[in-house]
Every structure is written in C-alpha cells, then in structure tokens.
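Section handout 9: paired folding examples.
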Amino acid sequence: MATSTSFQSDVVPQAPEDPLFGLMAAFRRDTDPNKVDLGIGAYRDDNAKPWVLPVVKRADETLRKDPNLNHEYLPIAGLAEFTSASQKLVLDADSPALKEKRATSLQTISGTGAVHLGALFLSKFYHPNTQRTVYFSDPTWPNHFQIFSNVGLPYKTYPYFSKKTKGLDFDGMVSSIESAEEGSIIVLHACAHNPTGVDPTQEQWKKIAEVIRAKKHFPFFDTAYQGFASGDLARDAWAIRYFIEEGFELCIAQSYAKNFGLYGERAGCFHFVTSPGSDAESTVSRVASQLAILQRSEISNPPAYGARIASLVLNDKELFAEWEANLKTMSGRIIEMRKALRSKLEELGTPGTWNHITDQIGMFSFTGLSEKQVLKLREDSHVYMTKNGRISMAGLNTHNVEYFAKAVDKAVKATQ
C-alpha cells in the first residue's frame, strides 16, 4: 500500500553532467590510437601514465612494516603531526603566526574539503548579521561556485584573465576588488592559478594586499600546487607568507593531491590565521572549537592513510629532501613541455602569439583557443580539452607534443 509523503520526488530535476567528468568519459570511449587527453587535472609521466612519487613509495613501505599501525579513528582535527607539519610547510617554520600561536588547523578531505570547511565557517561566523559577498577570479576553479553557494554565500567575480594579452588583467582585478563592498571575502589562488596558469608578480601581490587591507576584505587562499608549480616550495607560498607578515587575518585551503600525487587519498588541511594582538590565542581557541563542531557534523574524522604518508615525509629530513627532488621532476617536465609546445607552434607558423604558453605556470594553460577550435581539435584529431581552451600540460609528453602542435596549427588555420 502506497504511503503519503510531503516529498515530491517527481519535481527533482535531472542535474547536468559535470563537464570535466563528461570529457573524461568521452576520451575513454574514443578508440583512436592517437587520442590525447588534456583535460585530466592529474600529473602524468612521459608515457602518459600516473606517477607514484618514489618518496611516497618509500613512506608507504615504512607504514606497511609498522607493527603498531591500526585503523582506529583519527581525532576530529586529524593527525596532529600532519597538521603541524602542514602549518610549517605553508606558513614557514619561522612564521610569526606560529611563534605567536595565531594559527589553528584541521585535516580535511583534500583541498575541496578545506574550501568547504572554510566556506561553512565563514557563512556562520563572518559578520553573521550582514550578507557578505564572496569574490572569485574570472575564471576560477568551477567547484568554488558550487561550494560557496551551497553554504548560502552569494558570489561575484573580479576580472583576472585578459583574452587580449593571455596574461593577468591586473588593473581590472585591482579595480574590482577596490570597488567591492567593504568586508567582502576575496578568494585568491596562491600559485599556479587554476585554470589559467597566470599568477601575479610579487609586486602585484603587494598591491593586491594593499587594496584588500584598505577595503577591510577577508582573504581566502586556495593552495593546491605548492612546490608543484615552480619546484620551489617557498616561492609558491610567497603570497600567503607575505599576507601573514603584513598582519592579515585569513584562511587557507591546502591540498596534497598534486604535490604528493595523493589524488585518491584526499589529504588536505584547513588553516585559520588571526591577526596579531593580545587576544590572538583566545581567538584561535574559539575558532578551533567551532571548526571542530563543524567537522564533527560533516565527516566526524578525516581519513588517515594519505595524511600518514604526507606526515612521514614532511617530518623526516631525508624524505623531505627526496620529496623536493620529486617536485622538481614533475614541475621540470611540465616546464619542458611548455617550451616544446611553444617552439613547435612557432616553427609551424601557427597564427597568433604563443609566448603565453611559457609565461604561464603550473599544471594548466589557457591556450587562447576558441570553443570552435577546441571542438574541431576533438573531431579531427581526437584531442580532448575543456571548451574554454584550458589544457593540462601534464597530458603532453615527448611522444605527443608534436602531434598536438600540428593539430592546433591545423585547427587554427582552418577556423581563421
């Protein structure tokens, strides 16, 4: 006998397929032997295979031999030696925020979980009686929109990528942040901006900080590529460390997916740093207590394995040095692919300028290709990339970079 219910399931609409996962599915269905996947946001070696970092293999071996290893719950805040090492990694071991005990951290479900925890916390406690707007770069990681809207925070965008120069629209960015309502939340990519690969210079970061301070905005850093972008951990964390030295109150979402290759292990960290002051420790204590309550209701306890791997490496000098070498291997290969692609496009005389390929940094590059050209590349050459022209540089290697360059050349010339 049917039961009555107030829930009308027939009004639930079919959600659109996630564009990136749809692209991955289409690539898998393609049987062409020359197909190229430039949509995937994960590192691939020169043979287009997933690469398990050698240092991760060593740490994994150590873990498996540990007679005391168990599968008990971690604390709500996560593995303490992991979160403390994560603080030192992103803030610097000598950071004034750590010396003055102005930071608190929780282990999260990778960077996505860290962004969500931060968004949820801000929706509840950042000027709770006033509607605050979140500002994202245009473009940004698409998941930012969904995460913040899910917790009820309205959002707008600030100009970021210049289609004309294929670089940073710095004036547009600064002007938009300057004109945003006072006390807005400004989401910033710490390095290797996703999806453009375009980063501000250090002097530009100083100006951005100046404007954010003047308008009393709240900075929210998303850092998914520390060490992976340039091969230099300190360089990739420069913007965050500068803001902290300048006394900003801010939060940071930190991911270990890319720089450790721990994609499926979902190891991440959320950090809240308060401003200097006599009540800083008290503020951090209260913030930590509320974050713990939110974490408890969301996931109770974070997963242990990825955090244990990262913790072993971060807390051991020898393993840490090996990790830095692994980071240079990954970032170095991507830099070489940037050089090779630009060189081949210029050799072919492909219409347009291609210096932005090497000017940009990190996993992704905004090629400047139009949606029409992207679709033609897929149809004619079995090259898979997002419609906005973003490619994962990690998908290129010495075996396919020339094929891709020729495919781009053909598509651009055919659509002029």
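Moving on to protein 2 of 2.
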Amino acid sequence: MPELPEMETFRTILSNQLKGRPITQVEINREKSINLNPSLFTARVRGAMITDIRRRAKHLIFQLNNGYALLLHLMLGGWMYIGNDEDNPERTKQVVLSFGDRKLYFIGLRLGYLHLLTAAQLKEKLEELGPEPLDPNFTEKIFLEHISKKRGTLKAVLIDQKFIAGIGNCYSDEICWQARLQPERKASELTKDQVRLLFQAIQPILTRGIEHGGYMENPTYKGDQKTGGYNHHLLVYDREGQPCRRCGTRIQKTEIASRKSFSCPDCQK
C-alpha cells in the first residue's frame, strides 16, 4: 500500500504535469470507485481545472477551481499512470481523467476510491487523522505526550493513522530498524531515551523515502526513473534472509497482528 513517501512522490509528479490544466473528459468504468452518480460526478468534474495537489496522510487531494476537491486513496494495489491512448498499461482502469491529449489513469481501485467532496465534506473526512510527521509542528514533546498513552506494539502504534498520519507497514519497520528497536516491543515498555530515538528516526526515514521516490514499483509515466527508487535503498523491509546493513545478521520476517514485519534479531533490542 502506498505510504507517505509514495504519495508525496505522486504529488510532485502530478503537480508538475497536470496542475493548471482543465479536465476535458471523465471516464468511469467502476461506479464503486466514486461516491456520486457517474453522470453527476462527470458533470461536476469535467471542465474544472486542477489548481493544486496536496497530500494528507496517505491521501492525495486534487483541488478544483469550482470549489470541489477530488480525494484519492489508493489503498492496496492502487496506482496511477499518466499517458494517452497509445501509452497506457494493459490493466483495467477504474477511472480516467483526460487533460486534452494527456490522460490520468487510476488503476487497481478495487479497494481504493476517488471521491468528489465539498470543502466541508473534505474537512470532515480527514479530521480524525493524526499529525503529519514531517510538519515542523510535530515536535518531540508532542510525540512523547501521545506515545505515553499507547499500550500496543511499536508496529501497531506507528501505523495508527489517528496517532501519526502516513506511516504504514514498510516505513514502520524502517523506522524501528533506524531506532534499533524491535517492532513487536510494547510502546509502554520503552524508556524515555528509546522513545527519543524512535522519534528521531521518523523524519529522516520518511525524507529518505521521498528522496528516492518511494518503494512502489510501477512507473507513473513513460521514462519515469524516480518512482520506486527506494526499493534499492530499503534498510530492512522485505529483506528476509539478507544481511543487516548495520551488523550483518540475517534479517528475520515475523508476523505482528497479521502484518508481515522485518527486523534484525541482533541489533534491534
């Protein structure tokens, strides 16, 4: 599932290529991927211009010049591709937005969605999300206060979108590795120094993920050399049996609350 670095990568790419361009056509191939009657959805979206593309947690927000916003969540298996009739993946496209001769294909939205919302609806939809971990206002003091109330594993705490927005299965493991902590450790068992190490690992890991284009493998457009670059820089996630980049011990794969998790049995305490 795309996490904060992947969605931030998409935001940058889509902003560069589609921001300021009017939507000339709308194609809906799966009604469950949207939240309105297809005719009404199309009528409100067609002709509108994308004035801004923002990210909130694992969502993208396409702000339209008619006051509405398109809220995207790719969920598991969802991705996007910018192309045209001759250049597009041989996959089922749930929604297609045309920008003249350029098209944005939404693929794999069987669990994800693209909803058209008013400003009030958008605020309500996102209001339960926790703080953005890359926000300057997300301080160590706030982190210490919030995590002191948690009783679950570090894995469960880090992927809780009401606690911190945008972290998922991959980067929770990467953060724990950076902090030298096992993801199955209980948050309530950490010392203040260990909590500090955990906090200090969050922003560098997410920033690193963004710099390398996230870990999603599918390109966003023809010739895309950025998307998925983090696959070559993973510290621990999906590296079962490979040597730890810090101590050389083989990485182990475990399961925590039905989620796969990767860690070093030696240098993560």
